[in-house]
Design brief:
Layout (H helix, E strand, L loop, with lengths): L1 H22 L23 H4 L5 H10 L6 E6 L2 E6 L2 H10 L32 H11 L5 H24 L4 E3 H18 L12 H9 L5 H12 L1 H6 L7 H21 L6 H9 L39 H32 L1 H18 L6 H5 L2 H13 L6 E4 L4 E3 L8 E3 L4 E4 L1 H5 L42 H18 E5 L23 E6 L5
Parallel strand pairs: 2-7
Antiparallel strand pairs: 1-2, 3-9, 4-7, 5-6, 8-9
Helix pairs in contact: 6-7, 6-18, 7-13, 11-13, 13-16, 13-18, 14-18
């Protein structure tokens, strides 16, 4: 009985300690003159999301709309207090003008990510911090210039044509869009990142496709447990070298990368893909050239900083280890496989719901096809499609790839109050959140924000959009390094599909679309089911 009593007391004490730990920061925002979302132990401000009562997008939009007069407000992501910035001008200041105060994303893993740690996740560019991030970003940035995309474009066209051919011969043309597009993105990434030609419409269960679905499934219990572990016990998880990625996935891509590099070096093979560019970058042979700037850019392309200035004067580009190069390819594969396929899926949904917009875009596609006189689509022709750019820009506003971004304050930062309001000092070490989907649906910036309207991005209207209010690929030096590649993929497949098919509703099309609830990436609750009607267009 005595032993049982000791056990009960010990367990009760543990619960008390856990409760105190979970509640210790709950009054954090009482010291600041800003509003704050309600907070509960364990749940923070996100009970509805954790219990799958609302989607992440819905939660961010709802929270953003709760404080219409505030420049910022407080919230808790589980046990972590966060300043949420809802003023575009302040977003611009934090991410661009005063970037030196907010250089890093918040770290999921404690410790030096450039060390000999075996955790591949820590070596991805977005997880690096400080000077290491600056050096690696500078080394990698020439990999994603317009001229490099131009060299990869023929591979994207080949994957697009494979998809069209598969759909033309299919007996059933009602498709779930995400399932359809991840086959295309799988082939495009396999070719452009790893130099491997795959046709996932013929070889439906190839290893790239299978691993891509596994890696991108963050609802798997082991992955979810790891993510929660890093949320609550980051130091312990880092000390244990727990990786978000499964060992078999890391080993597969590491072996593939190593074999590709060895083969190319032994036989002098040059292929304009990510492995070749990283090999050059790692040797310091890849740099920005003044003439590489595109004359015509997609509006959604992440605006570049001068990455060369990120390095101290006189410094050289960084030598990347094999592990670091594999990590970039792995993250590039993950983002290109799932996130880009999502954007394509929602784009085709919006075109289906707005048949007049689909028809106008088809007319532009047909005009470009006629001008090519039977030849394959070119990179220059794609960049010249202004209405397509407007459509893609609006899709990325309505359905941004990431609903929010973050920065970590590395030194106290004062936000001066206006109109008699008190100043607010964001303390060193605290996380700042940028509610991208909230900004994208602010009716003061985008009237009738739930309406799909590409005209928001015509030549006149796009000039009225504040810099800090349109962030599909982030903003400032920490923006998405591969935005050009993503936009090239999306536009190329839309061109080829609309040239050959009209997209229509099916009996399974959910109208209006509902998002999956809980902590999951952007995803339609019941999928996006559409019919593809052949156009029989003659070039």
């Amino acid at each position: 009985m005595e032993g049982y009593l000791v056990l009960v007391i010990g367990f009760a004490s543990l619960l008390v300690v856990l409760y105190v730990y979970l509640k210790k920061n709950n009054k954090f925002f009482e010291q600041f003159p800003i509003p704050c979302l309600p907070v509960e132990p364990l749940f923070g401000s996100q009970r509805a999301v954790l219990l799958r009562q609302i989607s992440v997008n819905g939660f961010i939009r709802q929270s953003y709309a709760s404080f219409p007069g505030a420049k910022m407000y407080g919230m808790f992501e589980l046990v972590t207090p966060m300043f949420v910035i809802r003023d575009p001008e302040l977003v611009k200041r934090i991410t661009v003008k005063d970037f030196d105060h907010f250089i890093n994303h918040r770290s999921m893993v404690s410790g030096d990510s450039s060390s000999s740690s075996s955790v591949m996740f820590t070596k991805a560019l977005f997880n690096l911090s400080g000077q290491r991030w600056r050096n690696v970003r500078t080394t990698l940035s020439p990999t994603f210039t317009g001229s490099k995309m131009r060299h990869m474009f023929t591979m994207i066209v080949e994957c697009s044509q494979n998809m069209v051919q598969a759909l033309e011969t299919a007996s059933e043309r009602e498709c779930e869009m995400k399932e359809l597009f991840i086959r295309f993105t799988n082939d495009a990434i396999a070719s452009c990142a790893f130099g491997v030609r795959i046709n996932s419409f013929r070889d439906e269960q190839n290893v790239f496709f299978r691993y891509g679905k596994e890696i991108s499934n963050f609802n798997r219990l082991p992955v979810f447990v790891k993510i929660m572990g890093y949320q609550f016990f980051p130091k312990l998880m880092g000390w244990l070298d727990v990786d978000i990625f499964d060992r078999k996935h890391v080993q597969f891509f590491a072996d593939l990368f190593r074999s590709q590099v060895q083969e190319r070096e032994q036989h002098g093979i040059v292929r304009p893909d990510m492995i070749h560019l990283q090999m050059q970058a790692a040797k310091g042979k890849l740099r920005h050239l003044p003439q590489e700037r595109e004359e015509v850019e997609s509006f959604a392309t992440a605006k570049e900083s001068n990455e060369e200035k990120l390095l101290p004067e006189g410094a050289h580009t960084e030598t990347l280890s094999e592990q670091e190069m594999v990590a970039q390819c792995l993250i590039f594969f993950l983002a290109g496989f799932d996130i880009v396929a999502n954007s394509m899926s929602f784009l085709m949904y919006e075109l289906t719901m707005a048949s007049d917009i689909q028809e106008r875009l088809y007319e532009e596609v047909r005009e470009v096809s006629d001008s090519l006189e039977g030849k394959s689509l070119t990179y220059d022709a794609l960049l010249g499609m202004r209405y397509l750019d407007m459509v893609v820009s609006e899709v990325l506003r309505r359905w941004p790839p990431n609903p929010a971004s973050d920065r970590q304050c590395n030194q106290d930062y004062k936000v001066t109050g206006e109109g008699g309001a008190p100043d607010v000092v964001i303390p060193k070490g605290v996380t700042v959140s940028i509610p991208i989907v909230g900004l994208h649906h602010d009716p003061q910036i985008y009237p009738d924000p739930d309406r799909f309207d590409p005209e928001r991005f015509n030549e006149e209207n796009r000039q009225k959009i504040p810099l800090g209010a349109y962030l599909p690929f982030g903003i400032g030096p920490r923006n998405c390094i591969a935005s050009r590649f993503a936009l090239m993929e999306i536009k190329a497949i839309v061109y080829h599909l609309l040239l050959n098919f009209e997209f229509q509703r099916s009996d399974r099309t959910q109208v209006p679309i509902q998002l999956a609830k809980g902590f999951v990436p952007l995803k339609a609750e019941k999928g996006i089911h559409l019919k593809l009607k052949p156009r029989h267009y003659q070039q």
